[in-house]
Amino acid sequence: MLDLLERELIPPTPPVYGLLFEHALGVSQVTSAVVDGAMRQSERTGRPLGQVLLEAVPGTGASAASLRLAEEPAVQLDRLGTSIDAASTSAGGHREALLATQRALRDPAGSRGTLRDVVRSAAAQHDTLIRAKGLLRSALAAARAELAATREQLAQAARDSQLDPVTGLPNRLGAEDVLLSTVDEAHKGGDGFTLVLVDIDRFKVLNDTYGHQAGDCLLREVGRALTSSVRSGEKVFRIGGDEYAAIVHDTHGAKLEGTAERLRRSVADIDLARCMGDAVVGNVTVSLGLAVFRASDSFTSLFERADSALYRAKHAGRNRWMVAD
Fold first, then answer.
1. Considering only 4-8, 37-41, 131-135, 156-160, which range has the smallest mean pLDDT?
2. What's the distance, Cα to Cα, between the start and end of the chain in Å?
3. 98: which of 22, 51, 123, 219 lies 20 to 30 Å off by Cα?
4. Active-site entry in 164, 199, 201, 242
5. Domain boundary among 138, 159, 187
6. pTM to 2 decimals?
7. Would residue 148 count as lying in a domain?
8. Is 191 annotated in the active site?
9. Does residue 159 fall inside a structural domain?
10. Distance CA 291, CA 283 (A)
């Protein structure tokens, strides 16, 4: 600001300083518009900015008294005080330095040297504030980025907690969340559905005979077979050691029977040699229990009915499906 005063022959009076101070801080749109307009006119006409500014703003004239920093009208100093207050509020923590500037400007015994020191001090304080503001912005940006990363980690942990690590299917927790919301929607008039529970027949024997690695391979193969057999919008879950669940759209008649048979046969078609070795002959089978949603069903009662149907399928000889009453 000091260089501007000297270069453009602008008298360093309190009104002029206040005007340029308001413009530099951006606390007054009106003041900034006046100064910007004067700068543009100076560039167009080649006239010194000081001359254009003195003509544009009454009360900033370069009289002998103003050059000696004689007292100016109180209203000019009050306006400067308001600008200082606004700057202090936005800067946060430099109010005393700005008030010292105001007191120096009120001193009618001041000189050009005094004003030079005041301007330099204010400029230094302004630079400090700008740097502090930049540091604060950087710190806030870093904090926001860290918060976003933490939120994403928590969201990923929540997603992982509902996934089975062996098959990649939603686990029992995920199945319960989906089934609860599906039951709630059905109670509100949504579409009906059927809960299917699937259990691998004699899985423990296979797992104990061929090892856990072969057993995990078979669990993945069954998961893929069931998933490939359901339609868009239908879901498959692994809810236990050798147990799966599915939510399907069909609810009665031949369509429901066709869905149950399609699920059973998809597992029967698995080539055991892929998991147990070429010496293994035969296939793996599953038993299924189906429960069609009823208006009187809760999450618990629906699950219990499907489980009861699965139990009956097991005791009827396995490798079959049963529909709950």
1. 4-8
2. 90
3. 51
4. 242
5. 138
6. 0.57
7. no
8. no
9. no
10. 27
